[in-house]
Design brief:
It is built from six helices and five strands; from the N terminus they run ααααααβββββ. The protein is α+β, with helices and mostly antiparallel strands and about 220 residues long. It has two domains: about 140 residues, no CATH class; about 70 residues. Helix 1 packs across helix 2 and helix 5 runs antiparallel to helix 6. A hairpin with a 2-residue loop joins strand 1 and strand 2. Helices cover about 50% and strands about 20% of the residues.
Length: about 220
């Protein structure tokens, strides 16, 4: 028994472990960029090679550092806003394209013609970041609408017109298409995944936005 709240102990600080995880991840990505610079230097005149310690540090440490950072973030910052957690795919992209970034940087600094494969790695990394950010922003926008609908939406029931049941983590879930008539008398359709076994012809509760039910997240199935 103690008079001190265990959650206030310094080693339980989510901020601390979040900082440690980000330091490891960014350090791993930075080492990968430096490795790309060293690789470019070894492939260009005067062909400066790398020592054993450089190979160990630059080629072998980045991946364990990044994975360690991801692990610490996953278990040390539980309960925090998961938006940062969802963007942890970025370090993986950084590790993959970091060598290309370092190689391109070396060519630019030394006014050398760019090599195709590092440029492709950089472009692929940028495209991956853009695509991932678009997906995440759409997801966040949908979640925001769903939260608003659950707080102040109109409750009703809808009929399942199509149902496909499968298992997720050993639990049944069903992908359904539902039709319902809103408060203005307009028939609408919505799709979503809900827990449990469901079949066509049955009804389920739902909540929808009275002003914009057509947007993503404007209808929340299984809540009513």
């Amino acid at each position: 028994m103690s008079t001190i709240d265990p959650s206030t102990r310094w080693w339980r600080s989510r901020r601390l472990w979040g900082t440690v995880s980000m330091a490891l991840i960014l350090g791993g990505v930075l080492l990968t960029v430096v490795n790309g610079w060293v690789v470019a230097r070894s492939m260009r005149p005067p062909y400066v090679g790398t020592s054993v310690w450089q190979t160990i540090v630059l080629a072998m440490l980045p991946l364990p550092m990044a994975l360690g950072g991801l692990f610490i973030h996953a278990f040390g910052t539980r309960g925090e806003d998961d938006r940062v957690g969802r963007r942890l795919a970025y370090p993986i992209i950084g590790l993959v394209s970091g060598i290309g970034v370092g190689h391109v940087a070396y060519d630019i600094v030394h006014s050398l013609p760019l090599t195709i494969w590092p440029v492709c790695m950089v472009v692929a990394g940028l495209l991956a970041v853009v695509i991932l950010e678009i997906i995440l922003r759409r997801t966040y926008a949908k979640e925001a609408v769903e939260q608003e609908v659950q707080r102040s939406g109109v409750k009703g029931r809808g009929e399942i017109t199509r149902a496909v049941t499968y298992y997720l983590d050993h639990s049944p879930v069903t992908r359904v298409t539902v039709t319902f008539v809103d408060h203005g008398g307009v028939r609408r359709y919505a799709r979503g995944t809900i827990g449990g076994h469901h079949r066509s012809g049955t009804t389920i509760p739902l909540t929808y936005s009275p002003t914009r039910p057509e947007v993503r997240g404007g209808v929340v199935l299984g809540v009513g």
